[in-house]
Amino acid sequence: MSKKICINKKNVLILLLIALFISIMTFSSSYLLGKKTTYQSKAAPPQNNPKIYGGTEVTDLTKWPFIVRLFEIHDFLGKKFGSPSSSGYCDGTIVAKQWVLTAAHCVIKRKTSNIGIYIGSIDLHGANGNAQTIYINDILIHPYYNADKNENDIALIKLSKEIDLPIEPVSLNSDITKERDGQVGVIIGWGLIEDEARTSILRQGIIPILDKSRTLKWDQRYLNSIFSSTIVAGYPNGGAGICNGDSGGPLLVWSGMRWLQVGVVSGTTYGSYYKGEPTCGAKHKPGIFTRISYIGTDTQNNAVNYMRWITENIGERTDYFIGTQLTPTEKTEYYNRICDPQ
């Protein structure tokens, strides 16, 4: 004799709605992270999520322990959805026990309740390290951030609690001599390896800082994108650089004593996918970074001093991360690319 199975139609409907919501969010996140981009202009500021293109995997969290991943959190029927691997969209750096530095365009028009901060692992799936998700209390966007020009593209995130992992904050640079043409720089982040291939493992790329005049000689469209308050970095012939998903992450240089963060990933002028041009790490199209050491005026004649603004909000800092120099093997890619005919 068969038994009757009773089904609660209301519960079934709720489960179907949850499944539909998760499917939509997964598709949306995948689409945004893999979306092809075209040339930036004043009317179309840099995409919100460049990622490291080229480079190598990071195998040890102690190499860059201060890196964090921002990811979207969505509330549905009282439950939170979102993860670093499925809805991660920007990076940031730990600059104090309760503060993260990132790009303004990563957090503009976003609610504190819709952003999670992932720390303590080089794997977005949490397979190694002491992965934690920390929520946030406040977002401080630079008061003179200009979304149309993507100028003063820098912001601070206050975490809901102090980080309880043994992570030392990254040092911030105030010495402009560390930003000279040809200086070896390091970019780190999660994302595209080539075309639309993605990885959950943190990657690093080694690229040179470039004089702005070289960039303008290559492409006049950068006139609307680079300012006195920005740094440009990348190989003249391309091959490695930032790409979709890495905004807010650091540009680092070795001072001789410790690693210094000189820039915040802001954007890039990409090639046109529809014209068959490379969309990331393209020839004569370096990445754009907010220059942390900048003191001066912006294009609207506002007085700007990023380091003072940061210090006024987070206070004085101690116990900086030191790290170790790049090995000869790590520099191989840099020397091979930088010596290419330009």
Overall number of structural domains: 2
Backbone shape: globular
Cα separation of the termini: 82 Å
Oligomer: single chain
Let me know the average pLDDT: 82
Largest sheet: 6 strands, antiparallel, barrel
Structural class: alpha+beta
CATH class descriptor of the largest domain: Mainly Beta
Taken in chain order, the helices and strands follow as HEEEEEHEEHEEEEEEHEEEEEEEHH
Number of strands: 20
Short characterization:
With 342 residues, this protein is α+β, with helices and mostly antiparallel strands. The chain contains six helices and 20 strands.
What does this structure look like?
The protein is an alpha+beta fold and 342 residues long. The chain folds into two domains: 65-159, Trypsin-like serine proteases (Thrombin, subunit H, Beta Barrel), CATH 2.40.10.10; 171-306 and 317-338, Thrombin, subunit H (Beta Barrel). 18% of the residues lie in helices and 28% in strands. The protein is built from six helices and 20 strands. It has helices at 9-34, 84-87, 104-107, 212-218, 306-314, 328-338, and strands at 52-53, 56-57, 67-72, 74-76, 79-81, 88-96, 99-102, 115-119, 132-141, 155-159, 171-172, 184-189, 203-210, 230-233, 241-242, 250-254, 259-268, 287-291, 295-297, 303-305. The strands form five sheets. It has a six-stranded antiparallel beta barrel with strand order 12-13-14-18-17-16. A six-stranded antiparallel beta barrel has the order 3-6-7-10-9-8. A hairpin with a 2-residue loop joins strand 6 (88-96) and strand 7 (99-102). The model is unreliable at 1-5 and 24-51 (pLDDT under 50).
